[in-house]
Amino acid sequence: MKILIVEDEAGIADFLGRGLRAEGYDVEVAGDGEAGARLALDPEVDLVLLDRMLPGVDGIEVLARVRRVRPALPVIMLTARGEVADRIEGLDSGATDYVTKPFAFDELLARVRAQLRSAASETSLEAADIRLDLIGRTAQRDGETTELPRREADLLAYLMRNEGHVCTREELLSAVWGYDHDPGTNIVQVYVGYLRRKLARPGSPAPIETLRSVGYRLREPR
Ligand code: CA
Q1: What is the pLDDT of residue 93?
Q2: What dotted CATH number matches 2-120?
Q3: Residue 35 DSSP SS3
Q4: Is the CB of residue 73 less than 8 Å from the CB of residue 45?
Q5: Domain 2-120 identical in fold to domain 124-218
Q6: How far is the CA of 102 from the centre of ligand 1 (A)?
Q7: Among 63, 143, 172, 207, which residue is least crowded by beta carbons within 10 Å?
Q8: pLDDT, position 106
Q9: pLDDT at residue 112, rounded to an integer
Q10: What class has domain 124-218?
């Protein structure tokens, strides 16, 4: 298991790195947000310890960049004591957990283990009346199983994780295709069309709604 530490204070990065290596983890350290955001995209990285306060590109921005490409990567944010607003902001912006500085190493380690465990156990998703197998990339609906190519499975997983919420076209473009700009194509519409056809069952259209000029929403079928 590989852990990326994004921390500008060398003393803290060093202390964390030594402790985690002693527990058998592979550790990489990024000293600023720019490097952190880049290194976190390496598929070998299983978890990120992310300092909230970084010079230049700060923790929240690093997280936003990482989330566009790796929505399910466990990220534990390290925040200063008492910065309640920061903690809420961290969780709102997609951190999976946070630890307040100063912290006991054992507490951090427990949280690292918990995050890695729950990430490893996520092999399927259930939302609306769909079950998606993330390993085999198959979707099950009304007892019928459909295989999905990677992008379609990623798109469906994103809609399922946000069940009941409207996902905008821009959000889907960045989460599934990694675009940080609008490429001016109708690719999202096309892929939603593929999913709808594959998930439709006799008398029961796929439960993906279009909200005109806003986006798409997965919801319980009526
Ligand atoms: Ca810092």
Answers
A1: 74
A2: 3.40.50.2300
A3: helix
A4: yes
A5: no
A6: 12
A7: 143
A8: 93
A9: 95
A10: mainly alpha
Chain centroid, CA 172 distance in Å: 13
Distance 9 CA to ligand 1 centre (A): 6
Tokens of 195: 């999913």
pLDDT at 87: 64
How many angstroms is it from 50 CA to the middle of ligand 1?
9
Q: What are the two backbone dihedrals, phi and then psi, of residue 141, each rounded to the nearest 5 degrees?
A: -150, 135
CB atoms < 10 A from the CB of 54, how many? 22
List average pLDDT for each run of 10 residues in the chain, which is 222 residues long. 96 96 97 94 89 91 86 87 65 81 91 88 88 93 95 93 86 80 85 97 95 91 77
Distance from the alpha carbon of residue 89 to the mean position of ligand 1, in angstroms: 16
How many whole angstroms from 133 Cα to the centroid of ligand 1? 39
Sequence letter at residue 96:
T
Q: List 98's β-bridge partners, or say none.
A: 77
Place of tokens 């986006």: 215
7 alpha carbon – ligand 1 mean position (Å): 6
Residue 75 DSSP class: E
Domain boundaries of the chain, sorted by first residue: 2-120, 124-218
**pTM score, whole prediction:** 0.61
Token pair 């002693």: residue: 22
Give dist(CA 201, CA 8) in Å, integer.
Answer: 53
